[in-house]
Amino acid sequence: MNSLSEKKLKIGVFGATFDPPHMGHLIAAEWAAEDLNLHQVLIIPANLNPLKREHRPAPPEIRLKMVEAAIGNYPQLTVDDIEIRRSGVSFMIDTIDLLREKYTARENDFFLLLGADAAADFKLWWDYERLAQICTIAVFNRPGYELEVVAASLPAGAVTLKIPMVDISSTSIRHRIRAGKSIRFMTPEPVRQIIEEEGLYR
Fold first, then answer.
1. pLDDT tens digits, the chain, 202 residues: what are they?
2. Number of domains into which the chain is organized
């Protein structure tokens, strides 16, 4: 049995395409773990984001490899490949249902971690009303979004987190790579090395 199942825990769920993962992702995960007193944050790379089907991300196995490299041995962060193993389009409601079974729902509190950019589209998510009922939505600030305004648009019970404002996005990293510019310090060095080795985003 997974050790997380043995006692009541507060578990963060941080899902994204992570194409590629960057320092903003890591800062958000760590601050959420501390501010919400989470025992663990599950970092979950999407197999296929239902709201970004026009974007063709790097192969799932490579994105998973990058996330694992980004996390390293940080004790509170755990990479979970549940959506990649499930394949197809990644709907968070399905992921949370499976996680509730895995960790015994009544013994755990799940916190869905969303940047304000993702939270602004929350009502476009599949079965978002039930999703908000079975876990706590925790939204953190992102450049270009008013945190309190976004939070007010979410179902009742959502909480807000104010993290250091880091104006880094996966999109900007991909654009810099295509332009032949440096991405040092935007993403962990092991991730940058994988991008170089795999020839990604060129």
1. 344 445 568 999 999 999 999 999 999 999 999 999 999 999 999 999 998 877 789 999 999 999 999 999 888 999 999 999 999 999 999 999 999 988 875 556 899 999 999 999 999 999 999 999 999 999 999 999 999 999 999 999 999 999 998 899 999 999 999 999 999 999 999 999 999 999 999 9
2. 1
Query: If 0-12 CB within 10 Å is exposed, 13-18 middle and 19+ buried, where does residue 167 land?
Result: exposed
With 0-12 CB in 10 A as exposed, 13-18 as middle and 19+ as buried, what is 54? Answer: exposed
Q: How far apart are CA 131 and CA 146, in angstroms?
A: 23
Which domain covers residue 107, as residue numbers? 10-167
The CATH code of the domain that includes 91 is 3.40.50.620
Q: Domain for residue 193, yes or no?
A: no
Does residue 41 fall inside a structural domain?
A: yes
- 43: which strand partners? 14, 79
Site of tokens 């499976």: 98
